Amino acid sequence: MPRSPFASPAPSRRRFLQIAGSTMLVTGAGVFSMASARAGTGTRLHVLHINDMHSRLEEISGSDATCSPTASAEGSCFGGAPRLAGAIRARREELGAEGVPVLTLDAGDQSQGTLFYTTYRGKAEVEIMNMIGFDAMTLGNHEFNNGPDALAEMLAEAAFPIVAGNVVVPEGHPLKDLVRDHLIVEAGAARVGILGITTPDTVFLSSPEPVTFENETLHLEGAVARLREAGVNRIIVLSHMGFVQDQRIAAAVEGISLIIGGHSHTLLSNTVEGTPDYATMVEAPDGRAVPIVQAYAFSRYLGDLSVEFDEDGAVIAAEGDTVLLDASFEPAEDVATRVAALAGPIEELKRTEIAEVAASIDGSRESCRAMECEMGNSVTNAMLERVGNPAITIALTNGGGLRASLEAGMVTVGDVLTVLPFQNTLYTMQVPGRTLVAALEHGVNGIEEGAGRFPQVAGMRFRLDTGVAPNAGRVSGVEVATEDGWVPIDPEANYGLVTNNFMARGGDGYAMLASDGQEGYDTAIDMADALAEYLARHAPYSPAIEGRITQ
Length: 551
Known about the structure:
The protein is of the alpha/beta class. About 30% of the residues lie in helices and about 25% in strands. The strands form six sheets. An eight-stranded mixed β-sheet has the order 1-2-3-16-15-4-5-6, with helices on one face. A six-stranded mixed β-sheet has the order 8-9-11-12-14-13, covered by helices on one side. Strands 21-18-25-20-26 form a five-stranded mixed β-sheet, with helices on both faces. Helix 8 links the parallel strand 11 (about 235-240) and strand 12. The model is unreliable at about 10-20 (pLDDT under 50).
């Protein structure tokens, strides 16, 4: 019999974690296994989970961009909706034969990232989720990118419930009846409660007005209590808060059984070196072990978790890992057919050639949210050049706005739109030097969480010391480029800045730009157009790291 792609490799090393009488065994080459003295006496449930799909309906390359036909033929691509569907269906069939109930869950951010979202405004992603058969989803911040009206149109197509209880929708808005406070599902002989939370940072990460967000901890304390009063003690939280915040929540809120996370694109794995454990265990206020899991992003991995709950809702046994969806997983033919049909209207646009790139341009999340990156330099160079105003000498953009790398070779419109999918425009202003320094300091203070506000710059350079505490002077030695060379920034002088319209209005927490910027002007030039023109003018383009951010 052929070996299942979900089977566990043989153990190669062991580690143990003791929390409230639970022992967790982690094999360095495979799944973890956690059990307490009560294991084998509770209710079993299997959870298949994804997060941060970001419109990757087609299979992806090693850099998370849409995979090329050549790489696909070579079998070196990953993920994509057809392969994801095939993997989930195969796993459900295995588990169904064992009589184990299965939940398929999504921790948010189906939206934004490829031309599928640009073209269909989220409806294509929801249609594919319907075909796969998800049991629940929480909202990510990117679900609000086109505003709550467009989100309501997207969610109206969903055949599965949306659970995001801390999302506060005004009465009378069409989104009101589409987002639930909680969900109770039957899992074999037991009832399981599902809660969902969306990061309150959505107010500046996206465009949710008039929707607001309740504090996630306060919401969960009340929601858990309400479920427990209703006799539901097995409680799963679908969280679009990020891995660091999930650990804080697990340690602060009593009564949570399990957290399925998203937002930070964190790979939890027991097979990939340098990653947090799958699952990461946190001790709750009542001493129980709360597993936290997350499965990276872009459909590259599927989270595969088996849990056993006792009558009080505590997880008393668990095992699992993230599964790399490589070419060994057969795609679902019906989903592949539908994705191909959806891709038809945008294929011509995607294939339009722009310019030759002499070497790959690194736009990875790991680089652009933590250090100077090639894509950051390329995009900020393009911003300055496209504005073409001698009074605008500095460019600043957020690393989180750079969504993919570019491979060497011919770059197309589709490639550039994958890198810059948000349709942000170039926005110019005059800004005091002290405000620019404050903006840089703000931008680097979320580096530990991989926050998207990390600054990428042109016409300016600085030193970054992550050994310094946030807001305590991590940024130093800020200099600006002049005709006479690099000079220290003058806190009292005004500088011409080009940024994106999202940051100019305070997005990603850059409130100082909105409050201190003067002579603001939205050029209406799309950042993707600026990058495309820049690559064409400098073809064959070669990226470079130039010491703009030294660490």
